[in-house]
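Sample intake sheet
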Amino acid sequence: MTNTSSSDFTLLGLLVDSEATGIVFTVIFAVLVVAVTANLVMIFLIQVDSRLHTPMYFLLSQLSIMDTLFICTTVPKLLADMVSKEKTISFVACGIQIFFYLTMIGSEFFLLGLMAYDRYMAVCHPLRYPVLMNCRKCLLLAAGAWFGGSLDGFLLTPITMNVPYCGPRSINHFFCEIPAVLKLACVDTSLYETLMYICCVLMLLIPISLISTSYSLILLTVHHSRSAEGRKKAFTTCSSHLTVVSIFYGAAFYTYVLPRSFHTPEQDKVVSAFYTIVTPTLNPLIYSLRNKDVIGAFKKVFACCSSAQQVATSDA
């Protein structure tokens, strides 16, 4: 029987042995805390340390904001479902979850491409870099990334939620991801899935083309550079970004571009868990642990806090 009312969906969650639920819950909760803390610390350091007031770190702060919102869109609900007998999510909440994860993943697609463009400007045009990447341009680039992501959310969410759904409305996933939700549709969604496929391919191709072009030009510039220190600095900066790009785009390519014949529900859950839980945790760690400026800013803030605490203790 077709049901188009706003009744609840049921999230079947991760396929976890009941005996291991407690351990998995603890691990995922710990990852959530680390991800949110690391991203918030990154945002804070970029705001308070004047040495980090550069285009690269401004875009990095936007990435941390996206990662924080991204992991908070899905993981708290997953944790709540793991300790609750009621694993339902309302029709409206499901739509909100779809919108936010589409917006965040789309925005991150574009932002990673723009970060590669920023690295191209810094390496290939160092003397003109402050002018080419001024404050106004950085704000426009960040706004463009957010707009592109939200456009994806505004386009696909209403269509998905207006599809009629049948039966028990049990989603074989731990959050409302579109491919899993569409499996419950009472009508043929092949046309919509084709349109969504084209949309996702375009959203991947645009930033990937920008990344490929930027790094090709960077490699040419570095190859002709006579400065060993310059080569080392360019490699360190760009390798961190390429690591993040490879992880994030690889998972997105599997989920949204590979045909259904290459998918199983279990594999989809693992890949989705990877880019919704692991990637937002890795991003700030990759950029901070391999970055002397960020480590220096952290030590500076830590030293200031320690000094303030010592003064407060001596006054008491």
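Comment: The chain has a mean pLDDT of 84. DSSP finds ten helices and five strands in the chain.
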